[in-house]
Amino acid sequence: MNTILELREKRTKLWENAKNFLDSKxxxxxxxxxxxxxxxxxxxxxVVNLGKEIDRLEKQSAxxxxxNMAVGMPILEKPTNKKVKTGRASEEYKRxxxxxxxxxxxxxxxxQESVDADGSFHF
Length: 123
Prior knowledge:
By secondary structure, the chain is mainly alpha-helical. It has four helices and no strands.
């Protein structure tokens, strides 16, 4: 299978040949014969067909690249066994909650961390 670059180079050469052919076959009035016009049309069709093949290969390459992309984020840090808990599962929340039950009035941080999206507060 030809690569895209090789096909582009081939298309460029064909186009240059077609232009030179057309320029060499013009009569003094600037017209060409019907036989030469048919030959030029064939040359032009070859250039167009190569362009379509290049487009197909480029689309194929883009789809291939998209399908081979990574689907997730790579792990950049070394995994540890220690899990950091946040919100109601945090150690600070547990400590503040026990202080509330014992009658110590430090509940500001507990309320701040445990407010739900609907605005209510749950223990």
